[in-house]
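Try this one yourself first.
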């Protein structure tokens, strides 16, 4: 099977989504107030773009966006719960504009929903700029998305741990070049994404760089090194139609190569197939070790 371009985004969950717009002003302007979607993996879903009234918008526009978005979400969810097709849903409010359906992909169902909502200008969680990368720690688009998804989920379930993400290290007077994805008291990791469809010369390049940064970070920690320092690598879950058997074999070979590299630096590689597994790993080590230490 021919390789896809290196920046091709490969995901494990696919969904269809459409935006609902509220026309504003006299110049054919409009604002997205809700995102609606469905898929075999996610089922039907709906999210209002603004989770609360926005006080910084003129007149009552901030309240209108919040109120109308809530009405749309409630009506769409009720429509789908009654077994009706999402494709046939119509807005209960006159004057709203329905956008075209578009495809969205994510590492897991919640990631697919987050990605869909993030394209709205007033999305509650702003997307990190695609070009925002530390010069010493480059990442592929898949790796950036994986890191963002884990960070967002940790911020939701364990807000106190969110401060540990994306740290530039300068410990015990020694600088560790580049940014480390997560640094806690007991757990340090960088996130990689194994894309078996990437060009062979690029498949392990950024993950290898992350291993190098982890090793330098461990040197900087010295005797204060955390209990676990590892590379967390997302790999495609079994059974996805977009991958061939050869693709899965290639993914295993990539992980084996990364583990060999990690072994030379006395580090480890922990492979996961979804964001939840990566989050559980972080929380279990960071929180459990903290409890044992106390």
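Now uncover the answer:
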């Amino acid at each position: 099977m021919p390789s896809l371009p290196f920046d091709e985004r490969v995901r494990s969950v696919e969904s269809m989504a459409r935006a609902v717009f509220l026309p504003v002003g006299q110049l054919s302007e409009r604002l997205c107030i809700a995102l609606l979607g469905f898929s075999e993996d996610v089922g039907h879903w709906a999210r209002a773009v603004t989770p609360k009234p926005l006080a910084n918008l003129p007149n009552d526009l901030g309240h209108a966006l919040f109120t109308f978005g809530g009405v749309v979400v409630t009506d769409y969810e009720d429509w789908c719960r009654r077994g009706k097709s999402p494709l046939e849903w119509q807005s209960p409010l006159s004057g709203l504009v329905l956008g075209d359906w578009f495809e969205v992909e994510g590492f897991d169902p919640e990631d697919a929903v987050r990605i869909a909502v993030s394209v709205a200008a007033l999305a509650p969680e702003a997307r990190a700029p695609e070009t925002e990368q530390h010069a010493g720690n480059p990442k592929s688009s898949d790796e950036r998305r994986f890191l963002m998804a884990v960070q967002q989920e940790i911020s939701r379930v364990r807000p106190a741990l969110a401060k540990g993400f994306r740290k530039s290290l300068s410990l015990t007077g020694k600088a560790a070049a580049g940014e480390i994805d997560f640094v806690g008291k007991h757990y340090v990791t960088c996130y990689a994404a194994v894309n078996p469809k990437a060009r062979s010369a690029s498949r392990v390049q950024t993950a290898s760089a992350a291993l190098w940064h982890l090793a330098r970070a461990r040197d900087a920690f010295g005797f204060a090194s955390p209990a676990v320092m590892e590379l967390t690598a997302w790999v495609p879950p079994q059974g996805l139609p977009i991958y061939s058997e050869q693709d899965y074999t290639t993914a295993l070979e990539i992980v084996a190569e990364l583990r060999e590299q990690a072994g030379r630096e006395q580090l480890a590689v922990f492979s996961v197939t979804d964001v939840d597994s990566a989050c559980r790993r972080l929380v279990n080590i960071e929180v459990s070790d903290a409890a044992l230490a106390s």
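Discussion: The chain has two domains: 13-118, 141-293. Residues 109 and 127 are 18 Å apart (CA to CA).
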